[in-house]
Amino acid sequence: MKETVLGIQVNTENYDNLLKEIFQRIERKEKSLIVAINPEKIMKAKEDPSLKKLLNDAEIQIPDGVGVIIASKIQKGQITERVTGVEMMMRLCEEAAKNQKPIFLYGGKPGVADTAAAKLKELYPGIIVAGTLDGYEKDNEIVKAKINEAKPDILFVAMGSPKQENWINANREELHPTIYQGVGGSFDVLAGTVKRAPEAFQKLGLEWFYRLMKEPKRFKRQLALPLFLVEVARSSKK
């Protein structure tokens, strides 16, 4: 099921239900893009028709951001659980290991995807990492050939959003994988080059606040959240 938040569709399911649906899509060979939806993206999409189309055209839109959960409560919707991009990737990898579905990591600085892959093998014994490739290969035909030779079922692309989703949409019909997820800085988190917020912040949905404390220059970006909630409150009264 999906719910619309300021014109953007968002899945209402929790991790378990989404994983079940995703692995059914693999069995049906139904190519699907997973995008993370947060207040900042929704506010940008209001001014950017191409971004709005990209987000709404995706097959699966996960509610990544506590603001989306609050918005759903304001409009008496059905989204009750946050589904973060990095946690979705981890759970997909865990399930892929159980079901022997190969994955591929594409993007990031040289060596980062390799280190992330080694960490995944440590976390999920038996996981099949069909291949890795950093984001510095300029020849797109080489990128596609390497992915297709590896024949993964799931492709994680780390380029930053919306660049990673645009790349997926431009190339996925020529690629072997069924499931595609843009994962931003998740390879860096796995590789240990970037630290994720402590678990207490994660559980409270306050990763944004932790990042703000670490990087005060993010303050202007975080102003999107109160503006977003005001917009949701206004639209829910109409």
UniProtKB/TrEMBL annotation:
Family matches, as HAMAP family: TagA_TarA
Organism domain of life: Bacteria
GO MF terms held by the record: N-acetylglucosaminyldiphosphoundecaprenol N-acetyl-beta-D-mannosaminyltransferase activity
Enzyme Commission designation: 2.4.1.187
Keyword terms, alphabetized: Cell wall biogenesis/degradation, Glycosyltransferase, Teichoic acid biosynthesis, Transferase
Species this protein is from: Ureibacillus chungkukjangi
Lineage, uppermost ranks: Bacteria, Bacillati, Bacillota, Bacilli, Bacillales
Name of the featured protein: N-acetylglucosaminyldiphosphoundecaprenol N-acetyl-beta-D-mannosaminyltransferase
Pathway: Cell wall biogenesis; teichoic acid biosynthesis
Record keyword Membrane present: no
Family designation: Belongs to the glycosyltransferase 26 family. TagA/TarA subfamily.
Protein purpose: Catalyzes the conversion of GlcNAc-PP-undecaprenol into ManNAc-GlcNAc-PP-undecaprenol, the first committed lipid intermediate in the de novo synthesis of teichoic acid.
Reaction equation(s) it catalyzes: UDP-N-acetyl-alpha-D-mannosamine + N-acetyl-alpha-D-glucosaminyl-di-trans,octa-cis-undecaprenyl diphosphate = N-acetyl-beta-D-mannosaminyl-(1->4)-N-acetyl-alpha-D-glucosaminyl di-trans,octa-cis-undecaprenyl diphosphate + UDP + H(+)
Enzyme class: transferase
A Pfam family assignment: Glyco_tran_WecG
GO BP annotations listed: cell wall organization; teichoic acid biosynthetic process
